[in-house]
Design goal:
Strand 1 and strand 2 form a beta hairpin. A two-stranded antiparallel ribbon has the order 1-2. The protein folds into 2 domains: about 80 residues, no CATH class; about 30 residues, no CATH class. With about 110 residues, the chain is mostly helical. The longest helix is centred in the first third of the chain and has 17 residues. The radius of gyration is 17 Å and the shape is globular.
Amino acid sequence: MPGNQNGTFPFSRDSTAFAVDYLGGYLRGCVEGWEIWLDHSGAHNYGPGRLWGCVGSWYSGGWHDAAANDYISNVRAAWRSHPWLDVVWPIAGPGCSEQYGCIVGDRLGPTGG
C-alpha cells in the first residue's frame, strides 16, 4: 500500500480479531512494565500494574499527557454508561473518513454517501 509505514494498517482496520489481539498484547506488555520507553524522563511514574495509564498511552503514545488523560476519561465514561447494551449498538457505526473510507456492515465501501 503506497505511503504505508509498514505498521498494522490495514489489518487493524479490516480485522477486529487482529485489532483486539494487538491491543491486548500492547496492554499486557504495558501493565507488566515492559514499555520502559514510556518513562523516558523518569518523572512520569510509569511502572507495572497501572492499567489506566496504559490505556491512555495506547491512544496518545505518552504517559498521562493531556491527550492520554482525555482518552482515559472518555473510556471510563463509556465503561460506566455501557453503550454496547443500547439497542442501536449493533447498527451504529463509525463515520466515514476520506483517508480510510466507510465501513458498511462488515465490508469496506468507498468514501461518501
